[in-house]
Amino acid sequence: METLPSDSIIHNIMWKISEDYSNGIFYLSLWPFSGTMMVLADADAASQLDSLALGKGLDIIDPIEKVTGGKSLLTMKGDEWKHWRRLFNPGFSAGYMMGLTSVIADEVGIFRQKLLVKCTTGQSEVFLLEDLTLKMTFDIIGSVVLLAERSANLSNSNDTTRSKSIASLFIDDYLKELGEGNLGKRENPDTTQQIKHIITPQVRLFLFAGHDTTSSTLLYCYYLFSQNPEIISRTIAEHNEVFGTDPSQVQDKIHKDPQLLNMIPYTVAFIKEVLRIFAPAGAMRQGRSNVQIIDADGRVLPTEGCNVWTLVQAIHHNPKYWKDPDACIPERWLVGPEDPLYPHKGAWRPFEWGPRNCIGQTLALLELRIALVMTVREFVIKPAYEDWDKLHPKSGIRSVKGNRAYQAVKGGGGAHPADGFPVRIGLRSC
């Protein structure tokens, strides 16, 4: 579209189209490039699918499996998907994730050290912060999925269980299901080959999808902090109250008492608001002959033969569901249902809802909490798009709805801040 940057994500294009359809539902044919899509820009319509475990269509499955090298939780369907999702769920539970906080904090500590190096001469030169956040989130997902070590100082925890990575936990459960004991006793070469065949695509999926979107969300946290000084002030005050006034001690405090991360409600509310304003991805499902959508006027709309696309960006910015939808207001997530700010049921969908929701959402939210408590009080991160545009001039539109850090295509599993999020960084004086 002529009103959008050339590298804008397709979600923004669909969002623009959806504004012409007041009921929030429309069909779109992209023949001969792909099949028919049913686009849902309405929260109540999207919620009608929440109880169904609709899988992906073949035109979505094929490119994903070329990356993963086989079937994964993202592409499996029916009973096969239910079986493997059940085996993986324990490794992504909130309780198990809390046992990995030290592993995550140590990776964030490396990121923090890199930021400190940038500040050795005062304010840094312009650089692309995404280069550092992608490296950090990739190392985190690699550590927790493959290489996690035992977290010390965890009260009421089983050290043997807590020492396992997600992959190791899954393999142990799978071997128990086969009746072959635990990981240390496997001797059957056929079983070993079978495990490799099953686990490799899953690990590739987690590495592929598990770091990309979290990195972008962290960058948008820094971006919205820079635009809203009152929010950063309140966040800093909350961190001072919970973790003490010395930011350099946060990593050790997380090691000793990870439950502190459950005592920062305003920070969590801010993260939710960032995920609303800059949703990292959408949801595409395959329609079925027995699944219909009923719109607000009572019309029954078939999904058969369609890829059903939940257009999260449009839903997240619809004034029908959100007061001041383009404003960053963390208080939405702290008020009761009687307040006009209170979120409309089913209108917040960054991880989707229902049985096929994002299995990694607990890990992503934990990563973001740890990254923020270990960086926001110590560093002032300022977007440097004006400097970047002078250094890299080009013609054409360079913003979406007033945001220079618009969501752009770069590859990976989600949307990225435009141009890798150029910034200048310095130490916070107080």
Automatic annotation (TrEMBL):
Record GO terms (molecular function): heme binding; iron ion binding; monooxygenase activity; oxidoreductase activity, acting on paired donors, with incorporation or reduction of molecular oxygen
SUPFAM superfamilies: Cytochrome P450
Pathway(s) where this gene product acts: Secondary metabolite biosynthesis
Cofactor: heme
Pfam families in the record: p450
Keywords from the UniProt entry: Heme, Iron, Metal-binding, Monooxygenase, Oxidoreductase
Binding site for heme: C358
Cross-referenced PANTHER family: CYTOCHROME P450, P450, PUTATIVE (EUROFUNG)-RELATED
Name this protein carries in UniProt: AflN/verA/monooxygenase
Lineage: Eukaryota, Fungi, Dikarya, Ascomycota, Pezizomycotina
